[in-house]
From TrEMBL:
Keywords: Signal
Top-rank taxon, per record: Bacteria
UniProt protein name: Secreted protein
Signal peptide: 1-23
Amino acid sequence: MIRAICTLLSLAGLFGASVNTFAGTIRIESGTYGANCGAHHGNSTRALALHCNDVDTCRYPVFSPATSRTRSACKADFVAEWSCGPREFHQATVSSAANNGGVLVLTCVPSTGAGK
């Protein structure tokens, strides 16, 4: 039993995710690359959901999707929207998608640091 839990935690670490039974888990609502440049809302939802659904924290590397149809001179943003339960909704943006190399961190772990 303990070996199975350790294996699960190790596998989660390999994929940039962590598992925590005390926090809600991420449910991706939408992922959009380049909406600020005219791209269709939700064009990256599937990829983001495959990477981040059902974990409490996820590190998502932001890259331009192969199907991106943004204006070539426009520096595209990446916007992620997710929920952690029925009443907790979050949104985060990587401005100009960090030139294809930014990492967006999504979490459902409650913050307990200063100011909370």
